Amino acid sequence: MKTVTVRIEDQLKAQAEDVLARHGVSPTEAVNHLYLYLVQHGQLPFRVSKRAEAPADVFRDTLIRVRLAIDALQSLAALPDAAPERDYLATQCRLRCEQLRQDIAGSAAFMALAACRDPLPREPDENTGLYWQWMQDHLAQAEGVLEDAAGNMSALLSAMTGQINAVYWQLATFIDLYGPVDTGPFRPSRQADNSSKS
């Protein structure tokens, strides 16, 4: 048996070990399974990319992934029930929704730091956290529909896609998807704005 030594940040290590403990898996077992997967499939079980530095970057990247998921779900919903590729595409869509939902859960607090493009003062309780939570909920529902793959999947998927799309546009209006990256602070709250006038 060989030993694998890795350097990892203390906080990340503690958080990862908490997740593994909830699943009843030791760090050694997790590494063994990762290596098994690499050998069996010849690729990583996840996409590795450099995390964007600014919250607005992550916000935009995540919204683009949501848009791609919406397009995939709409394409699947448009397929006839008897289409031979339907089951395969349903599995791929489910995996895409699951990964996206997990990534949103891990990044929502960070994305909440993105500056709103609207120059008007914001309400003190106005943030994107609730919208990202709704997005996670709708993606989880879509996963359930895709897992079941019942005869009325197309109708259910169309409804789910409509809900995901509605939340997508709420989030897309918060940030300028195609404009320059603004890493500045949030616009000031009305409370702070009013206090500066007195």
3D architecture notes:
- This protein is an all-alpha fold.
- The chain folds into 2 domains: 10-41, no CATH class; 55-197, Up-down Bundle (Four Helix Bundle (Hemerythrin (Met), subunit A)).
- 65% of the residues lie in helices and 0% in strands.
- The protein has 7 helices and no strands.
- The chain has helices at 10-22, 27-41, 55-78, 86-111, 129-148, 153-174, 190-197.
- The model is unreliable at 181-198 (pLDDT under 50).
Question: How are the SSEs placed, and which strands pair?
Answer:
Layout: H1 10-22, H2 27-41, H3 55-78, H4 86-111, H5 129-148, H6 153-174, H7 190-197
Helix pairs in contact: 3-4, 3-6, 4-5, 5-6
Q: Compute the number of structural domains.
A: 2
Predict the CATH topology of the largest domain. Four Helix Bundle (Hemerythrin (Met), subunit A)
Report the end-to-end length measured between terminal Cα atoms: 71 Å
* Overall helicity: 55-70%
The class by helix and strand makeup works out as mainly alpha
The gross shape turns out to be globular
- Mind describing the biggest β-sheet? none
Low-confidence stretches: 181-198
Calculate Rg over CA atoms.
20 Å
Strand portion: under 5%
Number of extended strands: 0
Provide mean pLDDT, rounded: 80
> Order of helices and strands, N to C?
HHHHHHH
**CATH class assignment of the largest domain:** Mainly Alpha
Q: Which CATH architecture of the largest domain?
A: Up-down Bundle
Give the number of helices.
7
